[in-house]
Amino acid sequence: MEKINNETAFFYKEIKPLTDKTNGPILVRKMDTKEFFVKKCYPLYLEEHLAALRNIKQAHLPKIQELVVQDGKLWLYEEFIQGKTLTEVIQSSGILETEQILTIAMSVLEALGALHKKGLVHRDVKPGNIMMTNEGTVKLIDFDAVRAVDGEKESDTVQLGTMGFASPEQFGFAESDERSDLYSLGIVMNICSVKEYPKKRLTEDRVLRGIIRKATKLEPGERYQTALEMHLALRQQKSKQIAAIKQAKAHAANLEKRPIRTYADTRPITTIWDTNKYVRQFVILGSRLIEVVVSFFRKYVPGFRTETLWKRAAALVWYSIFFVGITANIVDQPTESLKIREFVDYLLIFGLPVVLFTNFLDYQRKLPLLSSENKIYRSIGYGLLFLFWLLITKGGLELNSFIYRRFN
Predict the structure, then answer these.
(1) At residue 278, does pLDDT exceed 70?
(2) Helix, strand, coil percentages for the chain (3-state, nearest 5)
(3) Where are the domains of the chain?
(4) Exposed/middle/buried for residue 122 (C-beta within 10 Å: 0-12, 13-18, 19+)
(5) Cα–Cα nearest to 9, from 62, 53, 71, 63
(6) Which fold has domain 83-235?
(7) 375: buried, middle or exposed (CB in 10 Å: 19+, 13-18, 0-12)?
(8) What is the per-residue burial (b if ≥16 Cβ within 10 Å, else e) of 190-209?
(9) Is the CATH number 2.40.10.270 carried by domain 8-79?
(10) CA 20 to 30 Å from 1, out of 107, 272, 298, 351?
(11) Where does residue 164 fall: left (phi above 0), alpha (psi -120 to 50 degrees), or beta otherwise?
(12) Mean predicted confidence (pLDDT) in 2-12
C-alpha cells in the first residue's frame, strides 16, 4: 500500500465537501491529470481490508486510485461517480419495474461476488450505497463497514450496519459472512418493489417474492449460500420474464395479422359481440376473484405463506381435518344449544392455538417480544402467549358452560 507524505498531498486539490457530515467525502481534483476523485477518511483498522479492495477490478465497484496514511489518518481516493443513489431513484420514480430490480440486483451481486472472493464482506448493502450512474451502470459504494471473514468467531468484533437492512448476525448473534450481504440485498429488492421491509409487507410480485423470501431467512443456512447462487436464480427469473414478454408480443402480432372471419349466424353482429363481451367480463371477474383469494392465503394464512410445497400440503391436510372434525362434532349434538356450546369449546381448544401460534394475519410483528430478532425475547413472548391461551381457554370454557346452564 502506498503511503505519502505532506508534499504528495498537494497532488490533489480539494473542490468541495459532498455531504454535511464530519469527515465526510470530499470532491478533489488531481493536479496533473485534471481528473476528479472522491477523498474519504476511514478508520485505520480498515487499512488492510481497503488495500485488498484496491486490487479488485470490477465494473460495479468504484475504482480506487490511491490509499494513503497521512498524519495518523487513513485516506482513500476513489473514482468520482456521477449519478443518483438508488434511494434517490426510488424517491423520484416510485416503485421500480421487476426487470429493472432484477438488473440492479444482479449488478450488485457481481460486485459482492468480487468482494467475497477476496474474503471481504460489505455489511452495509442498502439503497443509499448503490449508485446509478448517468450512463446507467450500477455501482456498490461505501466501505465503512467492510470486514474480512474469519470463519471461527462467534460474532463480529465491530458490529456495524444499517438498522432494517443489516442481517441478524450483524447484531451479535453470529459472525457475518457473504450470506449477510445477500440478506441485505433481499431487503433492498423488496424496498424497490413495494417500498416496505419484507417483515412488514412482502412483495406480491411472483418473480421476486420467492427470491426475497429465501434471501431474507433468519437462519443463514436457509438463505442463498453464495452471490453466484443468488445471481443464477435471478438470471433464470429474468430469462423467463423476457421469454414471456416476447411470447405475449408475438401473440399480439399474430392476432393483428389474422384475417377477419365471417360467421353464418342469423343473429345481429351486435348480439354476438355483446354475448362475447359478457363472457369475457365473467372470465376476467372470475380470474381476479381467484387472484384475490390466492393472494389472501399466500399473505396471511399460515402454511400457505411459505414457498415450501410440503408445508402447504401439511397445512391443507390440517385444515381439512380441523373443519371435518368440528363439523362432525356439531352434527352429533342432539340440540341447537349443545351444538353452539360444542362449537365454541372446539374453537377455544383447537382453533385458538392455530390462530395464536401460527401468526395468523401476521399479528405477531406488531407485538414487541414476538417481533424481536433476539431468540430469548421471542421465547419469553411465546411463553406469555401460551399462558394467555390457557387463561382465555379456561375462562371461555367456564363462561360457555355458565351460559348454557343459565339458558337451558
Answers:
(1) no
(2) 55, 10, 35
(3) 8-79, 83-235, 309-407
(4) buried
(5) 71
(6) Transferase(Phosphotransferase); domain 1 (1.10.510)
(7) exposed
(8) bbbbbeeebbeebbebebbb
(9) no
(10) 107
(11) left
(12) 56
